[in-house]
Automatic annotation (TrEMBL):
Gene3D superfamilies: Ribonuclease Inhibitor. It comes from the Eukaryota. This is Chaoptin. Keywords: Leucine-rich repeat, Repeat. PROSITE patterns: LRR (PS51450). It comes from Epicopeia mencia.
Length: 374
């Protein structure tokens, strides 16, 4: 943290600077001559957390500039940009739309774009054209986006990760992601959707997802059939929703999910259907903490040969059938603290953890009066 209000002139005379960081100052303007003097040397420029509301057009002449961060300033539009920029952050400004300055970038240049925490309201067709042909990460977190229209993301954009969290998505066209089926692997959509459904209805584009975050939304019913539409999904976060049921429909038969991490904590589940998780043989981590689950049966956790972490903390469990946790050979951590358990049978843990696996069981903050078994 410093308090510079202007960049000293000594920078203007040193035309060999490759990396310049003047973040966390009180800069409110930049001389045009600075970028002219460094146009053939500067490769990395950081001007985050200042008071800049305008930058000179000479910035675009930075022939070697590849990494630029103007995050958390007071810009209401993007300045002219160097044509071969690779990473760009304009996060935390006052932008109301996708910057038109991006249209001047050379195709195949930019790979990372952060426009989070601005005031962008819409994503429109033709905003992501030739300039996005190498874009791998797009961060739109914390804007005011209410709608995403059809074919906003072109097939020429090989984006692997999109973050839409903390927007107000009331409408997502079913074909919004249809052009991205071969590239998109990570979709962050926390505190975004208000439809009550998972996922929003899409027609293609999400088939190759491996990471999906839909926490802090308003989902009520989780249908395993819907999850099966993402055959490569490894990580699913549904924390802080209003899920009351995990349902298995009749058309969900002989389907095996590839999930390895699943989070459903802080919801309203009061029971688990028989064999709810038996279709997830690759599951390693399962978090069901802080729901309203009141009892467990010997069919609650079957066919989970790879499960290592299971949390049921903070529920209202008062009973468990014998062998509830049986045949979980790789289980390392089982959290049952903060429930209403009064009786524990060690038979519930038959064939839990192989001999070379350290097993940790937390049953603190319960009402246990009896322990039985060997």
């Amino acid at each position: 943290l410093n308090e510079l209000t202007m960049i000293p002139k000594l920078f203007f005379t040193n035309n060999r600077i490759e990396r310049l960081s003047v973040s966390y100052n009180k800069l409110n303007s930049i001389s045009r001559d600075l970028f002219l003097s460094l146009k053939n040397s500067l490769e990395h420029l950081e001007m985050e957390h200042n008071k800049l509301f305008h930058l000179p057009d000479s910035l675009a002449q930075g022939a070697r500039l590849r990494h630029l961060s103007l995050a958390y300033n007071q810009l209401d539009e993007s300045p002219p940009l160097p044509g071969r920029i690779q990473t760009l952050s304009l996060a935390g400004n006052f932008l109301t739309s996708i910057p038109s300055a991006l249209q001047t970038l050379e195709p195949g240049s930019i790979r990372y774009l952060d426009l989070s925490y601005n005031r962008i309201c819409n994503l429109l067709p033709n905003e992501f054209l030739d300039w996005s042909s190498s874009l791998g990460t797009l961060n739109l977190r914390g804007n005011r986006i209410a709608q995403i229209y059809k074919n906003v993301f072109p097939a020429s954009m090989p984006v692997k990760e999109i973050n839409l969290s903390f927007n107000d998505l009331y409408y997502v066209h079913p074909q919004s992601f249809s052009n991205l089926s071969s590239s998109l692997h990570v979709l962050e959509s926390s505190s975004t959707l208000f439809s009550g459904y998972l996922p929003f209805e899409t027609e293609g584009g999400l088939e190759n997802l491996s990471w999906l975050s839909f926490d802090n939304n308003d989902f009520h019913i989780l249908k395993l059939y819907d999850i099966s539409l993402f055959p490569y999904l490894k990580y699913l976060n549904l924390d802080y929703n209003r899920i009351v049921e995990i349902s298995i429909s009749n058309d969900y038969q002989n389907v095996s999910l590839s999930l390895s991490n699943m989070r459903i904590s802080y919801n309203f589940l009061n029971s688990l259907h028989c064999r709810t998780f038996s279709y997830m043989p690759e599951l390693r981590n399962l978090d069901l903490s802080y729901n309203r689950i009141n009892n467990l049966t010997k069919h609650s956790f079957t066919n989970l040969p790879n499960l290592r972490y299971l949390s049921l903390a903070g529920n209202i469990i008062d009973s468990m059938e014998s062998e509830t946790f049986a045949n979980l050979p790789k289980l390392e951590i089982l959290e049952l603290q903060g429930n209403n358990i009064t009786y524990v049978s060690l038979n519930s843990f038959f064939n839990v953890s192989q001999i070379d696996v350290t097993f940790t069981l937390n049953i603190s903050k319960n009402y246990i009066r009896y322990l039985e078994g060997e």
